[in-house]
Design goal:
2 copies of one chain form a homodimer.
Chain A: E1 9-15, E2 28-34, E3 42-51, H1 55-59, E4 80-87, E5 97-100, E6 107-111, H2 138-151, E7 158-161, H3 167-178, E8 182-187, H4 190-198, E9 204-207, H5 213-220, E10 225-229, H6 234-240, E11 244-252, E12 266-268, H7 271-280, E13 284-287, H8 297-309, E14 317-321, H9 326-334, E15 341-345
Parallel strand pairs in A: 7-8, 7-10, 8-9, 10-11, 11-13, 14-15
Antiparallel strand pairs in A: 1-2, 3-4, 3-6, 3-15, 4-5
Helix pairs in contact in A: 2-3, 2-8
């Protein structure tokens, strides 16, 4: 296949330096290089959509976490919807769409055997393939698994979720409504707040930027909070804490407010306040990432597939055009600028 | 039965004032009054043993918790082993021993129907009835239920428990050993430390007062910590945190280091440090009290009864003589002065 080498140039974005605090454009570098050549069993993928997700901030740091960091000068990691352009694997042919971990680049090699399934959205008529990076992919499964395994909202209980216009939060709230819970969604700004109430049917929607937010949250939860789906942290968590009921469950899948913290804030050390609340109210606070519950994934695809087909679960996408805009897309995402699942249309 | 009124004088200890910080003798008042007279269905109980437990500090405060506070001038609450001295209930006769919630007093009335079972230690040959307040009662069940429902130690895992010479901690460590875990116990002082190692067979025993404690704990846990049974808080928790493994479980049944806190300490606010650790390491931190798992109680009695009968589980008691010494007994307990389960021999 050597005659194909020069047909494709690979554009890629690497980690140029580790951020101190919020990432800046200087932490990224765009490079061009010849596209790689597949060997036996491999395929060459062209990236169609790249997912941007809060966890990527963590990979830019070298602090111990659940996944190794991206090394300096390495391509930024990321989930993609990719198209097979050359195949030396019998199960895949040019034109096939797959979900892959191709990262922030236009071309990537992959072992055909690792692309466990071709993208298959036959029942989601009209859905963009990028859905497989959002409500029908990792963020949607994060919501589904966190509720199924930890949050367990019951009919009549009150569930609170923040970043509720994002792909995890919006899905959490809608599934909880289907389970019979009362849902209070929190987002930044009036447009997102109105979307939660008017489009997604949440019982109450609040804007965390409102100076009266904490009082509004209390008023919105007259019977307290039974499930707080934590993907934010910061002042929202502070406002939630005093409202948690006995036996409340707090699945923790993200803490975007803290990803760029450089130092702990000074003041009272509230760590023992939290542990005492965990004791007195018999809370369950449990961290997870979706792959911890991967055995549930087939069930998720079936149930979510049916919900999407029937229009029961709604979703929004926020499309960034062009790989070169991915760094600014992630920087904005970490500030809450996105309205819906943020993906980059790469080609 | 009115002719019996003056046969008995009731000595009782009431809450005189709420403590600010650590309790003092002035927070208690000893009173004498005629013993009450049972009506139909009731029994008059004479207290044989009164249990002293860390949770009592919480009942002296009016902060919201899982149980209502003791009111000023009310008798302090407490679990007892009591003897029936008069009975107007067909199922109980004078001389019967029962476990009851008679509180800090020599005589109390109880509805016979609420004394669900007579004390029955037939298989624990030679055991003091006070065992029903310790390893064979609430503290033992706290250990059993917290491990069964939350801690779930597996063979080969490392479990750490503090206050390990106390009735909960000692039982936690011994049950975990029976489940095949490696057990690191923490206590205050050399005598307790040696007891854990030499009498209870813990793999490692540490003295939290040692200036090198944090380094010793790290050295004692070369493979990290899979279960931390939390009944202490404070500096022990601080030393445990960095050692927790992915998917570690932290049952929280007590935080004795914080019960007399009046203000949160100043410095860095580590609350978000804890939540970030919960996320990154996918920890489960869950508060409980033993009655949350009361359905397990019959199973506990069966299994613990066999362990005690066979001498597999060992225990120590720390007996305070005389009800009038109960206040000092509780004050000392909260400082870790007890060595084993602290009970008051009342009569």
């Amino acid at each position: 296949m050597s005659e194909h080498i020069n047909e494709h140039f690979n554009t890629r974005i690497v980690l140029a330096s580790r951020p101190h605090g919020e990432p800046t454009p200087e932490n990224f570098r765009l490079e061009r290089a010849p596209a790689p050549t597949p060997h036996a069993g491999q395929v060459l993928l062209r990236t169609r959509f790249l997912s941007l997700d809060p966890y990527m901030r963590g990979r830019m740091s070298d602090a111990k976490s659940y996944a190794p960091p991206v090394e300096i000068d390495e391509v930024m990691v990321g989930r993609t919807v990719s198209e097979v352009v050359e195949s030396l694997h019998p199960g895949l042919a040019p034109g096939d769409l797959v979900t892959a971990d191709a990262g922030w680049q236009t071309y990537a090699l992959a072992e055909g055997a690792t692309l466990t399934r071709k993208l298959n959205l036959p029942d989601l008529a009209g859905a963009s393939p990028s859905t497989a990076l959002g409500v029908y992919g990792m963020p949607g499964f994060t919501a589904y698994a966190g509720l199924h395994e930890i949050g367990k909202p019951k009919a009549g209980e009150t569930l609170v979720v923040a970043a509720a216009a994002g792909p995890v939060g919006a899905t959490v709230g809608q599934i909880a409504k289907l389970r019979g819970a009362r849902v209070v969604g929190i987002a930044g700004g009036a447009a997102k707040r109105d979307y939660l109430r008017d489009e997604l049917g949440f019982d109450v929607a609040l804007d965390h930027r409102d100076p009266e937010f904490a009082a509004q949250l209390q008023a919105a939860c007259p019977d307290g909070i039974d499930v707080y789906f934590e993907n934010v942290g910061g002042p929202v968590f502070d406002a939630v804490l005093p409202l948690l009921n006995d036996f409340a469950r707090v699945p923790v899948c993200g803490l975007i407010a803290h990803y760029s913290d450089t130092d702990l804030p000074l003041g009272q050390d509230r760590m023992s306040l939290l542990t005492q609340l965990i004791l007195k109210r018999r809370l369950t606070v449990r961290g997870f990432i979706q792959r911890d519950f991967i055995a549930l994934y087939p069930q998720f695809l079936r149930e979510m597939g049916a919900w999407l087909r029937d229009g029961v679960i709604k979703y929004r996408e926020d499309v960034v055009e062009g790989l070169e805009n991915a760094p600014q897309g992630l920087i904005g995402l970490l500030k809450g600028e996105n309205f819906g699942k943020r993906v980059v249309r790469v080609s």
